[in-house]
């Protein structure tokens, strides 16, 4: 079957092919979905799939010699047959040329829905990696601990949600939500998006790390599914900019600043075109690859945790410095009720993009003058924003000030959602020869 998984995971055709088999242990967290409506199962040994109109063509191509497929038919699969169907669907998704996005496949919505059921029923994630070695203690990110490791000779980041360490959280429900979100990552591919290699798990057994790959121990509270992505040696935006400047450059040019932020806008516009909300955009979640392209990371993780967070806990784990006013103004909500949390949105991402622009232009986080989150929350709700950097501050910045970027920043962090532009419009404005944003003065 060649390199069929290399493209699905966002790897180039020369990269190692992930081993997607044998993920029995991870799926044990999703055992409650094997029965009832969620899995469509008659019992725990079979999976029933009702063929809808969009599915007919898929089944005709995958099973051409079977009896005619008609909408409304019901097909029952054993666990082995369901695993075989998953493999056939993955093969069916691979384009002949390997150069276009799987989300653009005309039957992607139907295939994604079927794959989700199959992954849960078979206890197999389509890209499960069982040969990841964790080598270094973690760095803390917004929602996850990030370990450094290796996979087939490549440096990788292994991200473990810290929510799994919270004894008050329903771990099975969290794992189910997490896996569903990972199935979205599974189909995304773009030059400004951090590739998703797959999932792994390990047991953190020793304070000095000594983390071991294990099999069949998912009932242990120490074992958690972890995201595996490429390790970006150039780090996040600020680290990348500081390293550039420290190598003899006085400041990053206006052109270079615009190029970086255009890459961020392009990646975010791509996510929004697939109806994916980032939910935690900030400079630290924009990594830079070996070709100096910015890549968005950690998108979707905040959406997973919002299922379990309260208004109070979200502002504790997700800094208000990048949150739009509608996401933190919960004065009338029950502070301990998860359903009271406003959903992350594309408009919220646009606001966060403005904050990333501020970080790049100034080298500081938004509202850096105010150390307490409560101060920031109050100012954002009241409509205040970080002020334009002074001449003294610009002297200390690693980037040349760009008036055009500042004008876009002020447009994107407007208080009212309707006044913020869509990310595709921002992307077009920043692109060479792209359409300009109307009424932008600078």
Task: State the main characteristics.
disordered N terminus; Transferase(Phosphotransferase), domain 1; globular; alpha+beta; six-stranded antiparallel beta sheet; 16 helices; 442 residues
Q: Portion of residues in helices?
A: 25-40%
Give the tally of structural domains.
3
- Order of H and E elements: HHEHEHHEEEHEEEHHEEHHHHHHHH
CATH topology of the largest domain: Transferase(Phosphotransferase), domain 1
Radius of gyration: 23 Å
Major beta-sheet overview: 6 strands, antiparallel
Strand content: 5-15%
Number of strands: 10
Largest beta sheet: what is the strand line-up? Answer: 3-4-5-8-6-7
The DSSP helix count reads 16
CATH superfamily of the largest domain: Transferase(Phosphotransferase) domain 1
Structural class: alpha+beta
Averaging pLDDT over every residue, what do you get?
77
Distance between the termini: 54 Å
CATH class of the largest domain: Mainly Alpha
GO molecular function, one term: protein serine/threonine kinase activity
Pfam families: PK_Tyr_Ser-Thr
Domain Protein kinase: 132-432
InterPro entries: Kinase-like_dom_sf, Prot_kinase_dom, Ser-Thr/Tyr_kinase_cat_dom, Ser/Thr_Kinases-Pseudokinases, Tyr_kinase_AS
């Amino acid at each position: 079957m060649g390199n069929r998984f290399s493209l699905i995971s966002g790897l180039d055709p020369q990269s190692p092919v992930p081993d997607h088999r044998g993920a029995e242990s991870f799926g044990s967290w999703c055992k409650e979905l094997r029965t009832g409506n969620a899995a469509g199962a008659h019992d725990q040994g079979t999976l029933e799939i009702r063929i809808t109109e969009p599915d007919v063509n898929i089944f005709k191509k995958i099973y051409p010699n079977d009896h005619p497929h008609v909408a409304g038919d019901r097909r029952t699969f054993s666990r082995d047959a369901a695993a075989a169907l998953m493999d056939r669907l993955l093969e069916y998704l691979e384009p002949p040329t390997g150069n276009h996005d799987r989300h653009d496949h005309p039957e992607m919505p139907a295939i994604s829905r079927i794959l989700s059921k199959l992954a849960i029923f078979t206890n197999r994630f389509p890209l499960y990696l069982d040969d990841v070695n964790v080598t270094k203690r973690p760095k803390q990110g917004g929602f996850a601990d990030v370990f450094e490791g290796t996979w087939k000779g490549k440096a990788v980041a292994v991200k473990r949600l810290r929510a799994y360490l919270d004894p008050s959280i329903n771990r099975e429900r969290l794992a189910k939500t997490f896996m569903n979100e990972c199935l979205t990552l599974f189909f995304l591919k773009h030059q400004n998006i951090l590739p998703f290699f797959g999932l792994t798990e390990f047991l953190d057994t020793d304070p000095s790390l000594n983390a071991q790959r294990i099999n069949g121990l998912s009932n242990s509270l120490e074992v958690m599914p972890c995201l595996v992505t490429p390790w970006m040696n150039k780090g996040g935006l600020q680290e990348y900019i500081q390293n550039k400047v420290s190598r003899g450059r006085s400041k990053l040019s206006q052109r270079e600043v615009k190029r970086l932020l255009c890459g961020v806008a392009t990646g975010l516009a791509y996510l929004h075109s697939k109806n994916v909300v980032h939910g935690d955009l900030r400079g630290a979640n924009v990594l830079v690859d070996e070709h100096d392209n910015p890549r968005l990371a950690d998108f979707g993780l905040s959406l997973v945790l919002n299922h379990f967070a309260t208004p109070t806990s979200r502002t504790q784990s997700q800094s208000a410095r990048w949150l739009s006013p509608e996401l933190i103004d919960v004065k009338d909500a029950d502070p301990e009720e998860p359903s009271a949390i406003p959903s992350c949105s594309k408009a919220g991402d646009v606001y966060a993009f403005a904050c990333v622009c501020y970080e790049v232009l100034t080298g500081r986080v938004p509202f850096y003058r105010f150390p307490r989150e409560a101060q920031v929350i109050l100012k954002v709700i009241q409509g205040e924003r970080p002020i334009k950097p002074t001449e003294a501050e610009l002297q200390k910045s690693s980037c040349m000030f760009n008036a055009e970027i500042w004008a876009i920043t002020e447009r994107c962090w407007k208080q009212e959602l309707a006044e913020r532009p869509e990310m595709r419009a921002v992307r077009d404005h920043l692109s060479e020869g792209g359409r300009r944003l109307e009424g932008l003065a600078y």
